[in-house]
Design a protein that fits this description.
With about 325 residues, this protein is α+β, with helices and mostly antiparallel strands. It contains five helices and twelve strands.
Protein backbone atom coordinates (compact mmCIF):
# COMPACT_ATOMS: atom_id res chain seq x y z
CA UNK A 1 0.00 0.00 0.00
CA UNK A 2 2.85 2.39 0.83
CA UNK A 3 4.36 1.72 -2.61
CA UNK A 4 1.06 2.61 -4.36
CA UNK A 5 0.74 5.83 -2.37
CA UNK A 6 4.27 6.86 -3.36
CA UNK A 7 3.47 6.32 -7.06
CA UNK A 8 0.27 8.36 -6.84
CA UNK A 9 2.13 11.16 -5.06
CA UNK A 10 4.82 11.26 -7.76
CA UNK A 11 2.18 11.52 -10.52
CA UNK A 12 0.49 14.40 -8.72
CA UNK A 13 3.75 16.39 -8.48
CA UNK A 14 4.47 15.77 -12.16
CA UNK A 15 1.07 17.21 -13.13
CA UNK A 16 1.73 20.37 -11.10
CA UNK A 17 5.10 20.82 -12.79
CA UNK A 18 3.42 21.01 -16.21
CA UNK A 19 2.28 24.59 -15.49
CA UNK A 20 4.70 26.89 -17.37
CA UNK A 21 6.58 29.61 -15.58
CA UNK A 22 6.28 33.01 -17.30
CA UNK A 23 9.91 33.72 -16.49
CA UNK A 24 11.55 30.57 -17.84
CA UNK A 25 11.69 29.25 -21.41
CA UNK A 26 10.43 25.72 -21.93
CA UNK A 27 12.93 23.58 -23.82
CA UNK A 28 10.95 21.36 -26.16
CA UNK A 29 11.90 20.09 -29.58
CA UNK A 30 10.23 21.36 -32.74
CA UNK A 31 7.73 18.65 -33.72
CA UNK A 32 7.75 17.21 -37.18
CA UNK A 33 3.94 17.02 -36.95
CA UNK A 34 3.60 20.80 -37.31
CA UNK A 35 5.94 20.96 -40.26
CA UNK A 36 4.35 18.00 -41.99
CA UNK A 37 0.84 19.36 -41.56
CA UNK A 38 1.86 22.75 -42.89
CA UNK A 39 3.62 21.35 -45.92
CA UNK A 40 0.82 18.99 -46.95
CA UNK A 41 -2.15 21.27 -46.31
CA UNK A 42 -2.63 23.75 -49.18
CA UNK A 43 -4.13 26.34 -46.79
CA UNK A 44 -3.28 25.62 -43.15
CA UNK A 45 -4.92 28.82 -42.01
CA UNK A 46 -8.37 27.49 -42.86
CA UNK A 47 -8.19 24.28 -40.89
CA UNK A 48 -9.18 25.49 -37.42
CA UNK A 49 -11.36 28.54 -38.10
CA UNK A 50 -15.14 28.32 -37.69
CA UNK A 51 -17.51 28.98 -40.57
CA UNK A 52 -17.66 32.74 -41.07
CA UNK A 53 -20.61 35.06 -41.43
CA UNK A 54 -19.34 38.35 -42.77
CA UNK A 55 -20.15 41.50 -40.84
CA UNK A 56 -22.44 43.52 -43.17
CA UNK A 57 -20.27 46.58 -42.66
CA UNK A 58 -17.26 44.82 -44.18
CA UNK A 59 -16.46 45.45 -47.85
CA UNK A 60 -13.64 42.93 -48.04
CA UNK A 61 -15.09 41.36 -51.19
CA UNK A 62 -13.73 44.35 -53.11
CA UNK A 63 -10.19 43.89 -51.78
CA UNK A 64 -7.46 42.37 -53.96
CA UNK A 65 -5.84 39.33 -52.32
CA UNK A 66 -2.90 37.09 -53.05
CA UNK A 67 -1.23 34.17 -51.28
CA UNK A 68 2.44 34.37 -50.35
CA UNK A 69 4.27 31.27 -51.55
CA UNK A 70 6.86 31.18 -48.77
CA UNK A 71 4.41 30.56 -45.94
CA UNK A 72 0.99 30.33 -47.62
CA UNK A 73 -0.18 33.55 -45.96
CA UNK A 74 -3.20 35.29 -47.56
CA UNK A 75 -2.40 38.96 -48.11
CA UNK A 76 -4.82 41.81 -48.71
CA UNK A 77 -4.02 44.83 -50.86
CA UNK A 78 -4.57 48.14 -49.09
CA UNK A 79 -5.02 50.75 -51.82
CA UNK A 80 -3.20 54.07 -51.79
CA UNK A 81 -5.12 56.71 -49.86
CA UNK A 82 -5.41 58.79 -46.74
CA UNK A 83 -5.78 57.67 -43.14
CA UNK A 84 -6.52 59.43 -39.88
CA UNK A 85 -3.77 58.80 -37.31
CA UNK A 86 -4.42 59.41 -33.64
CA UNK A 87 -7.45 59.94 -31.43
CA UNK A 88 -10.68 61.80 -32.21
CA UNK A 89 -11.79 63.46 -28.97
CA UNK A 90 -15.39 63.62 -30.24
CA UNK A 91 -15.52 59.91 -31.14
CA UNK A 92 -13.56 57.74 -28.76
CA UNK A 93 -15.99 55.22 -27.24
CA UNK A 94 -16.34 57.34 -24.11
CA UNK A 95 -12.62 57.28 -23.28
CA UNK A 96 -10.30 60.26 -22.94
CA UNK A 97 -7.57 60.62 -25.57
CA UNK A 98 -4.06 60.11 -24.25
CA UNK A 99 -1.30 62.66 -24.83
CA UNK A 100 0.66 60.54 -27.32
CA UNK A 101 -2.53 59.90 -29.34
CA UNK A 102 -2.79 63.59 -30.23
CA UNK A 103 -3.12 65.50 -32.40
CA UNK A 104 -5.45 63.66 -34.76
CA UNK A 105 -3.94 64.14 -38.20
CA UNK A 106 -4.25 62.79 -41.72
CA UNK A 107 -1.47 61.23 -43.80
CA UNK A 108 -1.29 59.76 -47.29
CA UNK A 109 0.09 56.27 -47.98
CA UNK A 110 1.11 54.35 -51.05
CA UNK A 111 -0.57 51.00 -51.72
CA UNK A 112 0.75 47.87 -49.97
CA UNK A 113 -0.17 44.28 -49.13
CA UNK A 114 -0.70 43.27 -45.50
CA UNK A 115 -1.08 39.81 -44.01
CA UNK A 116 -4.73 38.91 -43.49
CA UNK A 117 -3.83 37.05 -40.29
CA UNK A 118 -1.21 37.21 -37.57
CA UNK A 119 1.78 34.94 -38.28
CA UNK A 120 1.13 31.50 -36.82
CA UNK A 121 3.17 28.87 -34.99
CA UNK A 122 3.27 26.63 -38.06
CA UNK A 123 4.44 29.43 -40.32
CA UNK A 124 7.15 30.51 -37.91
CA UNK A 125 8.28 26.88 -37.63
CA UNK A 126 8.95 26.89 -41.38
CA UNK A 127 11.24 29.88 -40.97
CA UNK A 128 13.08 28.15 -38.14
CA UNK A 129 13.46 24.99 -40.23
CA UNK A 130 14.88 27.11 -43.08
CA UNK A 131 17.48 28.61 -40.74
CA UNK A 132 16.22 32.18 -41.16
CA UNK A 133 14.53 32.51 -37.76
CA UNK A 134 15.70 31.78 -34.25
CA UNK A 135 14.16 28.95 -32.27
CA UNK A 136 11.48 30.53 -30.03
CA UNK A 137 12.80 31.71 -26.68
CA UNK A 138 9.48 30.84 -25.04
CA UNK A 139 7.49 27.95 -26.44
CA UNK A 140 4.47 28.14 -24.13
CA UNK A 141 1.54 30.55 -24.15
CA UNK A 142 -0.30 32.00 -21.16
CA UNK A 143 -2.01 28.69 -20.28
CA UNK A 144 -0.58 26.06 -22.67
CA UNK A 145 2.81 24.51 -22.01
CA UNK A 146 3.35 22.97 -25.45
CA UNK A 147 1.79 25.83 -27.39
CA UNK A 148 4.47 26.09 -30.08
CA UNK A 149 5.06 22.37 -30.46
CA UNK A 150 1.50 21.04 -30.28
CA UNK A 151 -0.11 20.62 -33.76
CA UNK A 152 -3.46 21.59 -32.22
CA UNK A 153 -2.12 25.16 -32.03
CA UNK A 154 -0.46 25.28 -35.46
CA UNK A 155 -2.90 27.96 -36.67
CA UNK A 156 -2.63 30.09 -33.53
CA UNK A 157 -0.52 33.28 -33.48
CA UNK A 158 3.15 33.01 -32.69
CA UNK A 159 3.72 34.77 -29.36
CA UNK A 160 6.65 35.83 -27.19
CA UNK A 161 8.52 36.97 -30.28
CA UNK A 162 10.86 39.95 -30.07
CA UNK A 163 10.75 42.81 -32.56
CA UNK A 164 14.02 41.59 -34.08
CA UNK A 165 12.68 38.05 -34.52
CA UNK A 166 9.49 39.39 -36.09
CA UNK A 167 11.55 41.55 -38.43
CA UNK A 168 13.69 38.55 -39.41
CA UNK A 169 10.58 36.58 -40.30
CA UNK A 170 9.13 39.35 -42.45
CA UNK A 171 12.46 39.69 -44.25
CA UNK A 172 12.47 35.92 -44.85
CA UNK A 173 9.11 36.10 -46.63
CA UNK A 174 10.25 39.08 -48.71
CA UNK A 175 8.48 41.78 -46.71
CA UNK A 176 8.88 43.86 -43.57
CA UNK A 177 6.95 44.91 -40.50
CA UNK A 178 4.21 47.48 -41.17
CA UNK A 179 4.76 51.10 -40.28
CA UNK A 180 2.39 52.41 -37.64
CA UNK A 181 0.49 54.35 -40.33
CA UNK A 182 0.13 51.22 -42.49
CA UNK A 183 -1.15 49.23 -39.52
CA UNK A 184 -3.68 51.94 -38.69
CA UNK A 185 -4.93 52.26 -42.29
CA UNK A 186 -5.47 48.49 -42.52
CA UNK A 187 -7.60 48.74 -39.37
CA UNK A 188 -9.36 52.06 -39.92
CA UNK A 189 -9.63 52.57 -43.71
CA UNK A 190 -10.27 56.27 -44.54
CA UNK A 191 -12.51 57.21 -41.59
CA UNK A 192 -11.77 57.75 -37.90
CA UNK A 193 -13.53 54.67 -36.47
CA UNK A 194 -12.62 53.62 -32.94
CA UNK A 195 -12.30 49.88 -33.60
CA UNK A 196 -11.70 47.90 -36.81
CA UNK A 197 -15.40 46.96 -37.09
CA UNK A 198 -16.63 50.52 -36.36
CA UNK A 199 -17.63 52.45 -33.24
CA UNK A 200 -19.65 49.74 -31.53
CA UNK A 201 -18.60 48.58 -28.07
CA UNK A 202 -16.43 45.45 -28.23
CA UNK A 203 -17.71 42.07 -27.12
CA UNK A 204 -16.44 38.51 -27.19
CA UNK A 205 -17.96 37.99 -30.63
CA UNK A 206 -15.78 40.71 -32.14
CA UNK A 207 -12.43 40.42 -30.36
CA UNK A 208 -10.49 38.23 -27.96
CA UNK A 209 -10.05 40.64 -25.05
CA UNK A 210 -11.10 41.28 -21.48
CA UNK A 211 -14.89 41.67 -21.43
CA UNK A 212 -15.37 44.78 -19.33
CA UNK A 213 -19.08 44.09 -18.87
CA UNK A 214 -18.40 40.88 -16.98
CA UNK A 215 -14.82 41.47 -15.81
CA UNK A 216 -13.90 38.10 -17.33
CA UNK A 217 -11.45 37.28 -20.12
CA UNK A 218 -13.15 36.13 -23.31
CA UNK A 219 -10.81 33.13 -23.64
CA UNK A 220 -7.90 33.71 -21.29
CA UNK A 221 -5.36 32.91 -24.01
CA UNK A 222 -4.90 33.25 -27.76
CA UNK A 223 -7.45 32.08 -30.32
CA UNK A 224 -6.80 30.58 -33.75
CA UNK A 225 -6.19 33.33 -36.27
CA UNK A 226 -9.35 34.56 -37.99
CA UNK A 227 -11.69 33.28 -35.27
CA UNK A 228 -13.53 36.63 -34.96
CA UNK A 229 -14.87 37.53 -38.44
CA UNK A 230 -17.29 40.07 -36.94
CA UNK A 231 -14.26 42.05 -35.80
CA UNK A 232 -12.58 42.26 -39.21
CA UNK A 233 -11.57 45.63 -40.61
CA UNK A 234 -13.35 47.08 -43.68
CA UNK A 235 -10.56 45.59 -45.83
CA UNK A 236 -11.11 42.15 -44.30
CA UNK A 237 -7.94 42.11 -42.17
CA UNK A 238 -8.45 39.92 -39.10
CA UNK A 239 -7.56 40.23 -35.41
CA UNK A 240 -6.34 43.83 -35.46
CA UNK A 241 -8.10 44.25 -32.10
CA UNK A 242 -7.31 41.79 -29.33
CA UNK A 243 -5.78 38.31 -29.50
CA UNK A 244 -2.13 39.50 -29.48
CA UNK A 245 -0.36 42.85 -29.54
CA UNK A 246 1.44 43.47 -32.84
CA UNK A 247 4.87 44.97 -33.44
CA UNK A 248 5.23 47.75 -35.99
CA UNK A 249 8.35 49.03 -37.72
CA UNK A 250 8.35 52.48 -36.06
CA UNK A 251 10.47 53.78 -33.25
CA UNK A 252 8.35 55.45 -30.58
CA UNK A 253 8.32 59.11 -29.56
CA UNK A 254 5.50 60.63 -27.53
CA UNK A 255 5.47 63.83 -29.62
CA UNK A 256 5.87 62.26 -33.07
CA UNK A 257 2.30 63.03 -34.16
CA UNK A 258 3.03 66.75 -33.84
CA UNK A 259 5.62 66.68 -36.63
CA UNK A 260 4.84 63.52 -38.58
CA UNK A 261 5.38 63.73 -42.37
CA UNK A 262 2.18 63.98 -44.39
CA UNK A 263 3.22 61.30 -46.91
CA UNK A 264 4.32 57.75 -46.00
CA UNK A 265 5.51 58.47 -42.44
CA UNK A 266 8.16 56.02 -41.23
CA UNK A 267 8.29 57.00 -37.57
CA UNK A 268 11.18 58.73 -35.78
CA UNK A 269 14.65 58.12 -37.19
CA UNK A 270 15.84 56.61 -33.93
CA UNK A 271 14.64 55.68 -30.48
CA UNK A 272 14.83 53.16 -27.68
CA UNK A 273 11.47 51.41 -28.01
CA UNK A 274 9.20 50.24 -30.82
CA UNK A 275 5.51 51.03 -31.37
CA UNK A 276 3.01 48.27 -30.60
CA UNK A 277 -0.71 48.27 -31.47
CA UNK A 278 -3.88 46.22 -31.16
CA UNK A 279 -4.28 45.08 -27.57
CA UNK A 280 -4.24 41.47 -26.45
CA UNK A 281 -6.40 38.70 -25.03
CA UNK A 282 -5.87 39.95 -21.46
CA UNK A 283 -6.44 43.69 -21.99
CA UNK A 284 -9.58 45.82 -21.91
CA UNK A 285 -11.38 47.90 -24.48
CA UNK A 286 -9.50 51.17 -24.07
CA UNK A 287 -6.26 49.51 -25.09
CA UNK A 288 -7.77 47.72 -28.09
CA UNK A 289 -8.79 51.03 -29.72
CA UNK A 290 -7.04 51.69 -33.03
CA UNK A 291 -5.72 54.99 -31.68
CA UNK A 292 -4.08 53.44 -28.64
CA UNK A 293 -0.32 53.30 -29.07
CA UNK A 294 2.21 51.88 -26.69
CA UNK A 295 5.89 51.04 -26.87
CA UNK A 296 8.26 48.30 -25.73
CA UNK A 297 11.89 47.34 -25.82
CA UNK A 298 12.43 45.52 -29.15
CA UNK A 299 14.47 42.84 -27.35
CA UNK A 300 11.57 41.79 -25.11
CA UNK A 301 9.78 38.45 -25.47
CA UNK A 302 6.30 39.33 -24.20
CA UNK A 303 3.95 36.36 -23.94
CA UNK A 304 1.13 38.35 -25.55
CA UNK A 305 3.08 39.86 -28.47
CA UNK A 306 2.83 38.71 -32.10
CA UNK A 307 3.08 40.29 -35.54
CA UNK A 308 2.10 40.37 -39.20
CA UNK A 309 4.02 41.54 -42.28
CA UNK A 310 3.53 43.88 -45.23
CA UNK A 311 4.89 43.82 -48.78
CA UNK A 312 4.98 46.46 -51.54
CA UNK A 313 2.54 46.30 -54.41
CA UNK A 314 4.59 45.38 -57.51
CA UNK A 315 4.43 47.85 -60.40
CA UNK A 316 2.09 46.97 -63.24
CA UNK A 317 3.63 45.04 -66.11
CA UNK A 318 4.11 47.21 -69.20
Amino acid sequence: MLFVLLILSACSVQDIDKTPSPDQPIATALPTEILTETQTNPDPLTTSKPATEQNPTISSETSTTQVRETDNMPMIEIPAGQVWIGCDETNNAGFSCLADELPLHQVTLDAYFIDKFEVTNAQYALCVMDGACAEPYYQHSATRQDYYTDPDYADYPRVAVSWFEASDYCEWVGGRLPTEAEWVRAARTDDNRVYPWGNETPDCGKANTLDENTGQLCLGDTAAVGSFPEGASPFGVMDLAGNVWEWTADWYHQDYYSNSPEINPQGPEQGGTKVVHGGGFDYGWKLTRIAYTTDHDPREHKIGFGFRCVSPVPPNDP
